[in-house]
Each structure stands twice: as structure tokens, then as C-alpha cells.
Amino acid sequence: MSYHLLTGATGLLGNYLLRDLLLRDVPVAVVVRPNRKQTARQRIETALCAWDAELGKPLSRPVVIEGDISQPDLGMDAVDVRWAAEHCTAVIHNAASLTFHSTSKEGEPWKSNVEGTHNVLEFCRNAGIRKFHHVSTAYVAGLRQGKVLETELNVGQQFSNDYECSKLQSETLVRQADFLDEPTVFRPGIIIGDSQTGQTTTYHGYYAALQLVHTIVRAYSPNETGLVGGDHVRLTLTGNETKHLVPVDWVSAVMAHVITHARWHGKTYHLTPKHPVTVRLIRDVLEQATGFYGASFYGAGERPDDASESEMLFYEHIRVYNSYWKMDPEFDTTNTDLAMPQLPCPHVDRQLLMKLSRIAIENGFPTPSKKPIEPEFDAATHLKPLIDQAGVPLQTEAEERVLGLDIAGHGGGQWQLIARGHELISVELGIHADRAATCHLDINTFADLVQGRTTWRQGLNSGSVRITGNGHGVGDYAKILDQLVTAPVR
In b/e form, how buried is each residue of 408-436, taking b as 16+ CB within 10 angstroms? Predict the structure, then answer.
């Protein structure tokens, strides 16, 4: 079983991609950087526990590798580098910085988007990984107007900000990597929340304007109608500017479909809507959602000379996003339409934007929680003695890899059981491609097995434990599995 190595799994799109790939039974390994309060594994578990609750069932767990794309070898230790080289055959490079303006070429977005992509590509070169799925952006088009083809990249365009320029350089590096098969490139528009639930975990782009207006409304006194008057701000826009907003669940669904169907590999996909929204509609939604009514369009260009205090406050806080409020080009979606005709982009209209806005305001634009969620039972801790045993040389004939172990839910993971005959020798991280079969169960069942509340045979008979594959008989596997909870460390 070969793994897809995913970067950027803790971001909004990465969070959805991880869910959608796991739901499709795609083996996933993730490179994750720890933060001050959470380990790499805890960061992933925070996201997956939320999905478990929403889906009403536990998901399988990816292999979690601590790393950092800004470092050579992606910041992995030698053991993880070796594991990834042996077990990963494809990379999904989703990690990126959304910083619009940099202070130096050593800072963001260049550090993540250019140097990070370079490091990921070098890792692929050294590991012999040839399949590459790259998340770019439709805004590599920069200030282009007219129709932008999926087959085009650098045609000498100018850029609105450093983010767009860094993403063009990143995509160029991918296309120049001659050791890869033809890469698959995804160019989403401006990603917003879930079209079904309205939820999001990040608040960039559209949400930045929403949060700013909401803050202004709370800072100023309402007029006699109970509303904050729109004469506070004249927008330096015409209102006819268009923005290509795309729900994150749709972007992830299209990507997961393409990634899991080889016939669609090697192409570039504009993940953009047929009908972009206008800035006028966005203004109207912001008014309705926040109670800030009557803001007027002053016209594209410089701010008015007689700007009021509230206008100056608005201009200063929205300054970083000034380049965002421009007329978008038309994005060709030929490849996207061919690959996923059954799933057109949901229409982003007033109703959906109001739903997204109200949920963001009600939730208070929260930052992601950094408090670790500890599992009630941790399979990795229980298996650690047998995992450590994997590195101990054995004085007998070569082992036989016979059974993968897939434990879904918080505290679960994926491992390979190494046995000789019916004797369990050790446990290794990840499910190997040369396994004869795989054992599937959830963490609660595994805890019951370890704590003696049930047996493997009872689990196999009841269906709480499943064996898939064409290996030995179920009875033979049960003898091996029994040793996961009874066998002493050698």
C-alpha cells in the first residue's frame, strides 16, 4: 500500500483534503510542524476528532511525520526520511503562506511558497517520488484581463502582490522539475467556507473584510435607527469588480476525485466558479450581516481627500487587501469540467454569503484551538514495545509481512504486523504494499481487546473487527492478533 504524502494538512483546504482522501481509503502520510502547545500528531488529531464528530463515525488515521517544509529533507529525521522514501509514491503539496506583502525575500510568502516548494521537490528527487500534485492559485494570472487558459502560466503578467508572484514562481519550479512525471496542478480561486455547513477555520480574503466591518460596527455608536451609518466609509471601488469565490468543500471534492483517478493526472485545473460575485454584492451582504448600511462606491482609484476618521481607519486596516479588490479575469475551466462534470461549483450567491457571514460572526472569528485533545486510549503507546522491537536484529530467517493493522478513531493509526508463522515478531509504522491482508477496527474495540473485555475471535464474529485481503484464514490471523495484547517484548 503506497502512501500520498500531504503537506499543509492543518490548513483549511488541507483539513478537507485529509478528510476526503481518508473517506476514499487513500493511504495518507502528513508532514506537520508542531507548535508551542501541540505535537504534530496532536494537531492532526484536533482536526480529525472534529470530523469524527461531524461524520458520526471514526476515520482512519494518517501516518504523522513531524517536519517543516522550510527545512532541507522537510525537517524530518533520518528514520522518517527513510520511511517516506520506502512507502510514499506521490506528494500532494498544499502547504503555502497567504501573506500578501513581504518585508524581505527571506520572509513570507517567499520562504514557504518558493523555498518550501524547492525543498519538497528536492525531497521527491532524493526519494525517487515521481507523482506530484501541486496546489497553486488561479491568481498566478496576476493583473491579466480577458480569458486565462488552464494551459497558460507565465505570459509576462504583472502582479497585485507578493503572494501572487511567489505562487507563480512556485508553480514554475514544479513544471521545471524534469525528474517528475507530468505534474497535476490545481488553481483554486478565493477559498471560502463550507457550502453545506457554512463553517471555516481560517479568516482570510472575504472574511477579512467581514471581520473589519463587524469590528467598526461594534466600535461606533448607532444612529437613531439603531444602525451604524454608511456615511462613515466611501469605498474606492466601482462595485462592478468581480471575485471568484469557491467553497472549500467543492475544491477538496474535485481535487480528491482527480487525485484518485490516474486518467486525470498531468493536467492543470482552474477551480473557479462559472459566475463570480461582484464587489457590489459583497458590499450588500456585509451591510446586511453587520448592520453597516449605506456605504457608497467612490470609484476605483485613490481615496478621497476629505476622508473622515472612520474612513481612514477602514482604509488603514484593509490596506493589506487593497490588491484583492480588483477586476478578475475570466478563468478557463475546460479540464475541470471534463474531470468533474457531475459536480459543478456551488453558486456563491447572497444566501450562501449571508450564511457564511452569520456563522463567522456568531463564532467570533475564532483562532484554531491549541489545547491538545488527549485520547482515552492510545494504540501507539500500547504498541510501542513491539514497534521498538522492529529495529532489533533477529538471528533467524527473514520475517514474513502478513497483516496490516488499521485502527480508526482518536488514538488510532496504521501499522504492519511482522510475523513468522503464527508468531508475532514486531510492529512497523504504516501499512506495507506487500501485506497479505489488513485488519480494520476502531479504537474503542482495540481498547476493549487490550483490556480483556472482548477477544479477537469475538470481534471477528461480530463484525467489529474485519479482515480484508487474500491472505491466510481468519483463524490464523486471530492467533497473531492475540499476541498484540498478550505477547511479552522479546
Answer: bbbbbbbbbbbbeeeebbbbbbbbbeebe
